[in-house]
Design a protein that fits this description.
The structure is a single chain. This protein has a single domain, classed as Ribosomal protein L30/S12 (60s Ribosomal Protein L30, Chain: A, 2-Layer Sandwich), CATH 3.30.1330. α2 packs parallel to α3. It is globular and about 30 Å long. The chain has 5 helices and 5 strands. 42% of the residues are buried. It has a 5-stranded mixed beta sheet, sandwiched between helices. The protein starts with a helix and ends in a 13-residue tail after the last strand.
Length: 119
């Protein structure tokens, strides 16, 4: 069941709670440290950002979804446009994953869809 508006609000709540990691480089670092429970990658993230992040998320079996655009993702967490946001809290991560579940979601060995937006 896709509910992107609710997911955006929940990302904002996660940001206020201090349980997000904003930006591609920071998400990659946190994935390597085992801190990320779920990631949202912007549909319009650069090819370079996606090439660096998506294989790492898949290899580390971190669930992710390609959704929103960079502007919406950054605005959701009170920042400038972002290509990726990672969630560190298990319960918030699970809820955002539920709200954004659909054909673009990836987990473990699956690759997310290449262009769907959830706005």
């Amino acid at each position: 069941m896709r509910r992107p508006d609710a997911a955006i609000r929940l990302l904002g709540l996660a940001a206020r709670a201090g349980t997000i990691v904003p930006g591609t480089a920071q998400v990659r670092q946190a994935v390597r440290a085992g801190r990320i429970r779920f990631a949202v990658v912007a549909a319009d993230a650069s090819a370079n950002s996606r090439e660096k992040l998506l294989p790492l998320l898949t290899a580390r079996r971190v669930r992710f979804v390609v959704a929103f655009d960079r502007e919406a993702l950054g605005r959701a967490v009170g920042r400038a446009p972002l290509s990726a946001v990672g969630l560190t809290d298990e319960r918030l991560a699970e809820r955002v994953a539920e709200l954004l579940s659909g054909p673009e979601e990836g987990s473990g060995g699956e690759r997310a869809g290449s262009g769907g937006r959830a706005e």
